[in-house]
Amino acid sequence: MKGFDGSNLKFGYNKTDFNVRCEYKDGKWGDIQVSDSEMIPLHMAATCLHYGQEAFEGLKAYRGKDDKVRIFRMDKNAERLQSTCRGMMMPEVPTELFCEMVTKVVTLNAKWVPDYGSGATLYIRPLLIGTSAQVGVHPASEYLLLMFVTPVGPYFKGGFSTNPYMVTRQYDRSAPLGTGIYKVGGNYGASMKANDLAHKMGYSCEFYLDAKEKKYIDECGAANFFGIKDNTYVTPKSTSILPSITNLSLQQLAEDLGMRVECRQVPIEELETFEEAGACGTAAVISPIERIDDVEMNKTYVLSKDGKPGPICTKLYETLTGIQFGDIEDTHNWVTVLDI
Ligand code: PLP
Ligand code: COI
Description:
binds 2-OXO-4-methylpentanoic acid; 9-stranded antiparallel beta sheet; 21% helix; 6-stranded mixed beta barrel; alpha+beta; globular; binds pyridoxal-5'-phosphate; 7 helices
């Protein structure tokens, strides 16, 4: 056992040994620096502070039975960060630099990748911020890319168990042509009131409809939605949701299991027809949905009759986590294996 016992971990920040940094200056990325400080020196007029010129990513490293560490689909996180960079007028981070920094920060903190068996993992948080001063609303000329790691347990209470969700009609996290497709802090700031309301009302998470018509499903807090019916995996197509790498992977696994996959607008009423449903994401993994309450419309959609995860959610969960922890063959080449 090369890691540590992560069975009591919650999803949160835990200090580790090192982070890695790279600065963008004079139109180019510099060398990768290693730091043991949790602090960043920052100009008070930095664009990230005033105008939200920042982006982040989230991915995980998993320790297997063989003690090796596996990083899941980091090239996809690099691609998504590049898309966010284009959307926020920040310099794109090359995939090679991104993957080198992820590998380095995991390797430097190898002892913080929890041991196999507890379900705990090492969450990797890349952060890109505009650091140079601006007072007019313009992009910065200098940037910092930083990556830290933190060992984490389950994002939702109970790990792989069903949870209730609440439709939010009072708040939107993003606009139809806004920044919802990018992983930027502003979307999460905009989600805090809805999330707080959902928690205060006893729900696990808020559930968003499309901001324009409030007719179609968008996503579940910081996770995408999928529903299962008639051997089909259905997931919303929308211009205001984050393209989830977990969802993309589940679509492939559903196809591998002989299911059809539909990525299209999903009217809220269609919730009545699903046999099972789940929220999916790096942090959430798959969080099967027990029910979704549309409180203002006085309507409840039940997605698990016995309160337990359904068979398809369970199969998808076992297959995905099996690949991530190295228990199931990685036929799609999703995993980077590190012997650390
Ligand atoms: N949707 C939102 C708003 C998120 O923050 C996340 C988390 O990253 C996801 C969906 C799931 O995306 P992924 O599977 O790439 O983690
Ligand atoms: C993730 O799943 O990586 C997320 O981004 C969730 C997070 C905002 C805590």
